[in-house]
Amino acid sequence: MAQRPYIVGNWKMHGTRSMLSEARAIDRAAERLIKAEVALAPPFTLIHATRKEAGLIAVGAQDCHPADGGAHTGDISAAMLKDAGASFVIVGHSERRADHGETDADVKAKAEAALGVGLSVIVCVGETEAQRDAGQAEEVVAAQLEGSLPRGEHAPEKTTVAYEPVWAIGTGRTPTVEDVGAMHRAIRARLEQIYGEAGKQVRILYGGSVKPDNAAELLAADEVGGALVGGASLTAESFLGIIVAAAERGEA
Ligand code: PEP
Known about the structure:
The protein is an alpha/beta fold. It has helices spanning 20-32, 44-53, 78-84, 94-100, 104-116, 129-133, 137-148, 155-158, 177-195, 215-219, 236-249, and strands at residues 6-10, 37-41, 58-61, 88-91, 120-125, 159-163, 203-207, 226-229. The protein has a single domain (6-117, 127-231), classed as Aldolase class I (TIM Barrel, Alpha-Beta Barrel), CATH 3.20.20.70. Helix 3 (78-84) links the parallel strand 3 and strand 4 (88-91). The chain is globular, with a radius of gyration of 17 Å. It starts with 5 loop residues before the first strand and ends with a helix. Bound molecules: phosphoenolpyruvate (PEP).
Protein backbone atom coordinates (compact mmCIF):
# COMPACT_ATOMS: atom_id res chain seq x y z
CA MET A 1 0.00 0.00 0.00
CA ALA A 2 1.57 3.30 -1.08
CA GLN A 3 0.28 5.42 1.77
CA ARG A 4 2.65 7.34 4.01
CA PRO A 5 2.92 5.87 7.50
CA TYR A 6 0.42 7.65 9.76
CA ILE A 7 1.78 8.47 13.20
CA VAL A 8 -0.79 9.69 15.69
CA GLY A 9 -0.02 10.95 19.19
CA ASN A 10 -2.68 10.44 21.86
CA TRP A 11 -1.97 12.77 24.74
CA LYS A 12 -4.77 11.25 26.85
CA MET A 13 -5.49 13.36 29.96
CA HIS A 14 -2.12 15.10 29.81
CA GLY A 15 -1.30 18.63 28.87
CA THR A 16 -1.96 22.23 29.69
CA ARG A 17 -0.99 25.21 27.58
CA SER A 18 2.62 24.81 28.66
CA MET A 19 2.75 21.70 26.46
CA LEU A 20 2.00 23.64 23.30
CA SER A 21 5.72 24.11 22.80
CA GLU A 22 5.96 20.33 22.25
CA ALA A 23 3.22 20.52 19.63
CA ARG A 24 5.04 23.39 17.92
CA ALA A 25 8.31 21.43 17.84
CA ILE A 26 6.55 18.36 16.44
CA ASP A 27 4.89 20.48 13.78
CA ARG A 28 8.15 22.13 12.76
CA ALA A 29 9.89 18.79 12.40
CA ALA A 30 6.94 17.28 10.50
CA GLU A 31 7.51 19.91 7.82
CA ARG A 32 10.83 18.19 7.03
CA LEU A 33 9.69 14.61 7.60
CA ILE A 34 7.22 14.57 4.76
CA LYS A 35 7.41 10.82 4.25
CA ALA A 36 5.30 10.35 7.37
CA GLU A 37 1.87 11.78 8.07
CA VAL A 38 1.66 13.16 11.60
CA ALA A 39 -1.30 13.88 13.86
CA LEU A 40 -1.86 14.79 17.48
CA ALA A 41 -4.91 14.22 19.67
CA PRO A 42 -4.54 16.51 22.68
CA PRO A 43 -7.23 16.81 25.36
CA PHE A 44 -10.35 18.77 24.35
CA THR A 45 -9.06 21.87 26.11
CA LEU A 46 -6.02 22.12 23.85
CA ILE A 47 -7.53 21.31 20.45
CA HIS A 48 -8.09 24.90 19.38
CA ALA A 49 -4.73 26.13 20.63
CA THR A 50 -2.88 23.17 19.12
CA ARG A 51 -4.53 23.82 15.77
CA LYS A 52 -3.34 27.42 15.93
CA GLU A 53 0.21 26.53 17.00
CA ALA A 54 0.69 23.54 14.74
CA GLY A 55 -0.47 24.36 11.25
CA LEU A 56 0.90 21.37 9.33
CA ILE A 57 -0.01 18.31 11.32
CA ALA A 58 -3.56 17.03 11.76
CA VAL A 59 -5.19 17.78 15.11
CA GLY A 60 -7.92 15.60 16.52
CA ALA A 61 -9.84 14.57 19.62
CA GLN A 62 -9.89 11.49 21.82
CA ASP A 63 -13.65 11.02 22.01
CA CYS A 64 -16.97 12.57 21.03
CA HIS A 65 -20.62 12.18 21.98
CA PRO A 66 -22.87 10.47 19.42
CA ALA A 67 -25.59 13.13 19.60
CA ASP A 68 -25.55 16.42 17.67
CA GLY A 69 -26.19 18.38 20.84
CA GLY A 70 -28.55 18.50 23.81
CA ALA A 71 -28.72 17.84 27.52
CA HIS A 72 -25.46 15.91 27.95
CA THR A 73 -23.54 17.73 30.64
CA GLY A 74 -19.81 17.57 30.20
CA ASP A 75 -19.93 15.95 26.77
CA ILE A 76 -18.64 17.29 23.46
CA SER A 77 -20.25 16.71 20.08
CA ALA A 78 -18.44 15.97 16.85
CA ALA A 79 -19.58 19.31 15.42
CA MET A 80 -18.00 21.11 18.39
CA LEU A 81 -14.72 19.30 17.76
CA LYS A 82 -14.78 20.34 14.15
CA ASP A 83 -15.51 23.92 15.16
CA ALA A 84 -12.50 23.82 17.52
CA GLY A 85 -10.22 22.77 14.65
CA ALA A 86 -10.23 18.97 14.85
CA SER A 87 -10.12 16.96 11.64
CA PHE A 88 -10.41 13.52 13.23
CA VAL A 89 -11.48 11.79 16.41
CA ILE A 90 -10.29 8.63 18.13
CA VAL A 91 -13.20 6.44 19.23
CA GLY A 92 -13.36 3.22 21.22
CA HIS A 93 -10.00 3.56 22.95
CA SER A 94 -9.73 0.74 25.49
CA GLU A 95 -9.48 3.29 28.32
CA ARG A 96 -12.88 4.70 27.28
CA ARG A 97 -14.32 1.22 26.89
CA ALA A 98 -13.07 0.32 30.39
CA ASP A 99 -13.56 3.62 32.26
CA HIS A 100 -16.89 4.59 30.70
CA GLY A 101 -18.37 1.22 29.82
CA GLU A 102 -18.47 2.04 26.12
CA THR A 103 -19.85 -0.79 24.02
CA ASP A 104 -19.18 -1.55 20.38
CA ALA A 105 -22.57 -0.02 19.56
CA ASP A 106 -21.59 3.20 21.38
CA VAL A 107 -18.33 3.33 19.48
CA LYS A 108 -20.09 2.83 16.15
CA ALA A 109 -22.60 5.58 16.96
CA LYS A 110 -19.78 7.97 17.86
CA ALA A 111 -17.87 7.11 14.70
CA GLU A 112 -20.93 7.65 12.53
CA ALA A 113 -21.67 10.98 14.24
CA ALA A 114 -18.11 12.08 13.54
CA LEU A 115 -18.27 11.05 9.89
CA GLY A 116 -21.59 12.85 9.66
CA VAL A 117 -19.93 16.21 10.30
CA GLY A 118 -16.96 15.48 8.05
CA LEU A 119 -14.39 14.28 10.59
CA SER A 120 -12.25 11.21 10.03
CA VAL A 121 -12.20 8.51 12.70
CA ILE A 122 -9.67 6.19 14.27
CA VAL A 123 -11.53 3.19 15.66
CA CYS A 124 -9.60 1.32 18.37
CA VAL A 125 -9.83 -2.42 18.95
CA GLY A 126 -7.74 -4.86 20.93
CA GLU A 127 -7.87 -7.86 23.22
CA THR A 128 -7.06 -8.13 26.92
CA GLU A 129 -4.25 -10.30 28.15
CA ALA A 130 -6.70 -12.95 29.41
CA GLN A 131 -8.34 -13.09 26.00
CA ARG A 132 -4.97 -13.50 24.28
CA ASP A 133 -3.92 -16.20 26.74
CA ALA A 134 -7.18 -18.01 26.04
CA GLY A 135 -6.43 -17.97 22.31
CA GLN A 136 -9.34 -15.62 21.63
CA ALA A 137 -7.50 -12.51 20.42
CA GLU A 138 -8.53 -12.66 16.76
CA GLU A 139 -12.11 -13.59 17.58
CA VAL A 140 -12.43 -10.69 20.07
CA VAL A 141 -10.98 -8.18 17.63
CA ALA A 142 -13.19 -9.47 14.80
CA ALA A 143 -16.28 -8.96 16.96
CA GLN A 144 -15.15 -5.46 17.93
CA LEU A 145 -14.65 -4.56 14.27
CA GLU A 146 -18.03 -5.94 13.32
CA GLY A 147 -19.75 -3.98 16.09
CA SER A 148 -17.70 -0.76 16.16
CA LEU A 149 -16.90 0.18 12.59
CA PRO A 150 -19.01 2.92 11.04
CA ARG A 151 -21.07 1.98 7.99
CA GLY A 152 -22.23 4.10 5.10
CA GLU A 153 -21.07 5.08 1.65
CA HIS A 154 -17.97 7.09 2.59
CA ALA A 155 -17.11 5.28 5.82
CA PRO A 156 -14.11 3.28 4.58
CA GLU A 157 -12.37 6.35 3.11
CA LYS A 158 -12.57 8.26 6.38
CA THR A 159 -11.84 5.39 8.76
CA THR A 160 -8.57 4.16 10.24
CA VAL A 161 -8.39 1.16 12.54
CA ALA A 162 -5.96 1.09 15.48
CA TYR A 163 -5.10 -2.34 16.81
CA GLU A 164 -4.09 -1.82 20.43
CA PRO A 165 -3.74 -4.91 22.60
CA VAL A 166 -4.97 -3.69 25.99
CA TRP A 167 -2.10 -5.41 27.80
CA ALA A 168 0.48 -3.49 25.73
CA ILE A 169 -0.88 0.00 26.44
CA GLY A 170 1.38 1.93 28.78
CA THR A 171 3.08 -1.23 30.01
CA GLY A 172 6.30 -1.27 27.99
CA ARG A 173 5.31 -4.70 26.65
CA THR A 174 4.58 -5.36 23.00
CA PRO A 175 3.47 -8.38 20.99
CA THR A 176 6.07 -9.96 18.74
CA VAL A 177 6.34 -8.57 15.24
CA GLU A 178 4.89 -11.89 14.00
CA ASP A 179 1.87 -11.54 16.28
CA VAL A 180 1.34 -7.95 15.17
CA GLY A 181 1.55 -9.03 11.53
CA ALA A 182 -0.86 -11.94 12.07
CA MET A 183 -3.43 -9.72 13.78
CA HIS A 184 -3.12 -6.99 11.16
CA ARG A 185 -3.65 -9.55 8.38
CA ALA A 186 -6.73 -10.83 10.19
CA ILE A 187 -8.02 -7.26 10.55
CA ARG A 188 -7.44 -6.63 6.85
CA ALA A 189 -9.45 -9.74 5.97
CA ARG A 190 -12.28 -8.60 8.22
CA LEU A 191 -12.21 -5.07 6.75
CA GLU A 192 -12.62 -6.56 3.29
CA GLN A 193 -15.57 -8.62 4.48
CA ILE A 194 -17.23 -5.57 6.00
CA TYR A 195 -16.36 -2.92 3.39
CA GLY A 196 -15.65 -5.02 0.29
CA GLU A 197 -12.95 -3.66 -2.07
CA ALA A 198 -12.80 -0.39 -0.11
CA GLY A 199 -11.58 -2.36 2.91
CA LYS A 200 -8.23 -2.80 1.16
CA GLN A 201 -7.43 0.90 1.56
CA VAL A 202 -8.34 1.35 5.22
CA ARG A 203 -5.24 2.12 7.24
CA ILE A 204 -4.45 -0.13 10.18
CA LEU A 205 -2.27 1.33 12.93
CA TYR A 206 -0.52 -0.56 15.68
CA GLY A 207 -0.65 0.94 19.20
CA GLY A 208 0.76 -0.17 22.54
CA SER A 209 4.14 0.88 23.97
CA VAL A 210 5.54 2.13 20.67
CA LYS A 211 8.83 3.91 21.39
CA PRO A 212 11.65 5.32 19.27
CA ASP A 213 13.67 2.14 19.76
CA ASN A 214 10.97 -0.37 18.70
CA ALA A 215 9.09 1.72 16.12
CA ALA A 216 11.03 0.63 13.04
CA GLU A 217 10.50 -3.03 13.85
CA LEU A 218 6.79 -2.71 14.62
CA LEU A 219 6.14 -0.50 11.60
CA ALA A 220 7.71 -3.15 9.38
CA ALA A 221 5.15 -5.80 10.37
CA ASP A 222 2.62 -6.90 7.73
CA GLU A 223 -0.22 -4.47 7.08
CA VAL A 224 0.98 -1.93 9.65
CA GLY A 225 0.21 1.50 8.21
CA GLY A 226 1.39 3.56 11.16
CA ALA A 227 1.21 3.85 14.92
CA LEU A 228 -1.03 5.24 17.63
CA VAL A 229 1.31 6.45 20.35
CA GLY A 230 0.45 7.37 23.93
CA GLY A 231 3.27 7.98 26.40
CA ALA A 232 5.99 8.48 23.81
CA SER A 233 4.02 11.27 22.11
CA LEU A 234 4.18 13.54 25.14
CA THR A 235 7.54 15.06 24.30
CA ALA A 236 8.67 16.20 20.89
CA GLU A 237 11.96 14.39 21.40
CA SER A 238 10.50 10.90 21.82
CA PHE A 239 7.63 11.40 19.37
CA LEU A 240 10.06 12.62 16.72
CA GLY A 241 12.15 9.49 17.20
CA ILE A 242 9.10 7.49 16.11
CA ILE A 243 8.27 9.86 13.26
CA VAL A 244 11.82 9.62 11.92
CA ALA A 245 11.59 5.81 11.98
CA ALA A 246 8.28 6.04 10.09
CA ALA A 247 9.62 8.55 7.57
CA GLU A 248 12.46 6.17 6.78
CA ARG A 249 9.83 3.61 5.73
CA GLY A 250 7.62 6.07 3.87
CA GLU A 251 7.49 6.45 0.12
CA ALA A 252 6.94 10.25 0.08
C1 PEP B 1 -2.56 4.57 23.61
O1 PEP B 1 -3.00 5.02 24.63
O2 PEP B 1 -3.23 4.62 22.58
C2 PEP B 1 -1.22 3.97 23.65
C3 PEP B 1 -0.86 3.23 22.64
O3 PEP B 1 -0.46 4.22 24.77
P1 PEP B 1 1.10 3.85 24.98
O4 PEP B 1 1.81 4.22 23.70
O5 PEP B 1 1.53 4.70 26.13
O6 PEP B 1 1.16 2.40 25.24
